[in-house]
Amino acid sequence: MTDHRDLLRATPSLAAVLAIAGVGMGLVVLTSFGLMPLVGAPEASLAGWRLSGTDLLLGVRETLVIATASTVVACAIGLAVGSLVLAAGPGVRLVRAVAVVVLALPHLVGAASTGLLLRDAGLAERVAGAAGLPASAGWPRLVGGPWPVATVLEFAWKESAFVALVVVAALGATHVARTETAAALGATPWQRWRRVLVPASLPAVGASGLIVFVYTVGNYEVAWLLGRAYPEPLPVLAFRLFTSVDLTDRPAAAAAAAVTAALALGTAVVVAVLLPSLARALGHGVGAGGSDLAARAGAAR
Amino acid sequence: MRARAYAALALAWFAVPVVPMLIWAGADRWTAPALLPQELGVRGWQAAWDAGVLAAGARSLLLGAAVAAIATPLGATAGRVLGWGRGWSRALVAVVMLLPVLLPPFAVSIGLDVLLLRLQVPGLVATIAVLATFALPYCAFTIGAGYAATDRTVEDQARALGARPRTARRRATLPALRRPLLVAAVLAFLVGWSDYVVTLLLGGGQLVTLPVLLGSAASGTGNEPTVAALAVATAVPPVLLLGAVVLLARRRTRSAVA
After folding, report:
1. Nearest CA to B173 among B187, B159, B161?
2. What is the ipTM of this complex?
3. Which residues lie below 8 Å from residue B67, measured CB to CB, with a gap of 6+?
C-alpha cells in the first residue's frame, strides 16, 4: 500500500522524464523524416538521411573510436586510482580529494585547459623541448590531428576520477575485511589485487564504464574544441547542421542526433541483456558518484 | 616508498591538465618555447571582465540554483521508491530514471526545439526544464541510496506515536536524509552550472552563461589569457561549493557529537 502511495508521489518526476526525454526523442525521429519542419507543411522524406549519409557513417566511426578509447583508458586508470585509494597508503586522502574536485569541474574547462597543454607550442611541447626530446619530427598533432588524442585524454582524465570514486564507493565497506582474509590465507599483495580486488570491482568498473561510454558518445563540447574538422563525431556533426543557416539541414541534424541516441541507448540495452548483473550495478553506479561526494562530505566522522 | 610514488603519479594525472590554465590566467606574455611566462599580469582577467564575466557568472549561478531547486525535490520522490520500494514499482522508477543518463542532452534538445518554438516557451524556461530532467537521475539515485541506508521503521515509529504521514516524513525521515539531499542538490547545481550545449541550443543565444563565454573564447586563437581567466572563473565556484559542503557537513557532525 505504502509502495503505491510512494509511486503516486513519484509520478511528477516520472512524467517529467517521459515528457521531456521521451517526447524529445520522438520528435527528433519525426524531424529527421521531415515531419516536424520549422516552417511549412510536414512532408515525409528521406532527404535528411540522404544529405548526411556518408558523413553520418564516418561520424559513427569517429564517435565509436573516441568513446571506446576514452572508456578503456578511463576504466584502466580509474581502477588503478581506486585500488590506490582503497589500499589507504600515504597521500591517498589527497588523491581522493583531488579526484572529487576533478569530478566537479565542467568538461569544457578540462577541454580548454587540455588544449593549452597539448596543442602546438602548448605546455607539453615546451616541457618536451626543455627536456631535450628530439624535435626533428616536430610536435605531433594531438589537438585536431588525425587521431583524437587530446579528446580521448580529456575524457579519460575526468571520467577516470568518476570510475575511481565509484570503485571506492562500491568496495569501501567490505574491502578491508576481504583483503585481510586473503592476507591471512597467505596471499601476496599482487595476488590480493589480482584475485580479490579486481574481480570484486568488476561490476562497479563495468557499470561506470558503460556510463562513461554513453556519456562520451553524446558529448559535444570536448570533441568540438579538441577534435579535427573532418570527419566529425556525431554530436559535432548534428550541432553544426542544426545551427546552419540552411533550414533544409535540420532534418539531417536530427538524423545525426537520432543515430547518436540509438548508439547510446542500443549499447546500454545490449549490455543489459548480455550482462544482467552489470545492469543491476548501473543504477548504483549513477548514484555512487554522488554517494562518494556524500562520504567525502562526511569525512570528519 | 612505492606507494608514495603511485600516489604522486595519480596526483600528477589529475593535476597536470589544469596547470596550463592556472599559469596562463596570470600571464600577459608567454611565448614558446619558454617554460615560464615572460610577463605576468591580469590581461586575461581584463578581457574576461569586458566580455561580461560577472553577469555570465550570475546567470550560471541562477541556472544551477533553479535546476537544483526543481530536480532535488522531484528526485527525492523517485529516490524514496528506489530506496524503500520493492518489486515492479522500484524497477519501473529505476528504468525511467536511467533514460536521461543514457540519452544525449543535445539530441533531446534538437528534438524539442521546434515544439518549444511553436508553444512559445521562453528559452530560459526550456533550458531549466531540460537540464532539471537530466539532473533528476543523479538526485534520485543519490537520495535513493540515502533511503536504502535509513531504517524504514523510523517513520513507522513516528506514525505509531500519532504523527500524521506528512509529519512523520518531515520530522522523522527528512532529517535522516539531510546529507544525501544536500549532495543531490550540489550534483543538480553542477549539471546546470556546467552545461554548454543545452544552454546554447535552447537558450537561443540569449542565455550567456560562463560556459557559453568560455566556449566562444576557447574556439578562437591567440587569446590564451582570456580563455584561461574564463576557465578559472568557471572552475572555481564548483570547487568552493564542494569545500563549503564538506565544511558544513563537518560542522554539523561536530555539533551533533557535542
Report:
1. B159
2. 0.93
3. B128, B131, B132, B135, B188, B189, B191, B192
- A207 residue type, one letter: A
Mean of the per-residue pLDDT values of chain A: 88
Q: In residues, how long is chain A? A: 301
The 3-state DSSP class for residue B33 equals: coil
Contact A283 B129 (CB under 8 A): no
Per-residue model confidence (pLDDT) at position A109: 97
Query: Is the pLDDT reported for residue B206 higher than 80?
Result: yes
Q: How many CB atoms lie within 10 A of CB B160?
A: 10
In the prediction, which pLDDT does A247 show? Answer: 79
**Entry pTM:** 0.92
- One-letter amino acid of A176: V
Q: Output the CA–CA distances (angstroms, integers) from residue A84 to A101, A294, B4, in the order listed.
A: 17, 20, 10
Which one, of A255, A267, A289, lies nearest residue A71 by Cα?
A267
Let me know: does A191 contact A182? Beta carbons within 8 Å.
Answer: yes
Amino acid identity of residue A38, one-letter, is: L
Which residues does chain B have within 8 Å of residue A24's beta carbon, measured at their own beta carbons? 103, 107-112, 130
C-beta separation of A28 from A254 below 8 A: yes
CB-based contact (8 Å) between B89 and chain A? yes
Query: What span, in angstroms and rounded, lies between the C-alpha atoms of B199 and B197?
Result: 5
Q: How far, CA to CA in Å, does B56 sit from each of A74, A174, B100?
A: 32, 45, 27
Using CA atoms, how far apart are residues A92 and B138, in angstroms rounded to an integer? 26
pLDDT of residue A301: 28
Whether residue A203 is preceded by a cis peptide bond, meaning omega within 30 degrees of 0, is no
State pLDDT tens for residues A33-69: 988 887 778 887 887 888 777 889 999 999 999 999 9
B201 in A contact zone (CB under 8 Å)? yes
Tell me if chain B has a CB within 8 Å of the CB of A117. Answer: yes
Count of residues making up chain B: 258
Q: Which of B101, B129, B190 sits opposite A20 (nearest CB)?
A: B129
From its phi and psi, is residue B37 left (phi > 0), alpha (psi between -120 and 50) or beta? beta
Distance CA A268, CA A217 (A): 12
> Would the pLDDT of A216 be above 90?
yes
Using alpha carbons, select from A172, A146, A157 the residue that is nearest to residue A86. A172
How many angstroms from the chain centroid is the CA of residue A126?
Answer: 30
Smallest Cβ distance to B74: which of A12, A84, A291? Answer: A12
pLDDT digits (tens, 9 = 90+) for A68-82: 999 999 999 999 999
The CA distances from residue B219 to A54, A107, B7, B121, in Å, are: 26, 14, 34, 30
For A294, other C-beta atoms within 10 Å of its C-beta total: 26
Could you tell me which of B74, B204, B228, B194 has the C-alpha nearest to residue B144? B74
Q: Residue A244: helix, strand or coil by DSSP?
A: coil
For residue B11, give the 3-state DSSP assignment: helix
DSSP string over A56-111: HHHHHHHHHHHHHHHHHHHHHHHHHHHHHHHHT-TTHHHHHHHHHHHHHS-HHHHH
pLDDT at B253 over 60: yes
Closest approach of chain B CAs to the CA of A62, in angstroms? 16
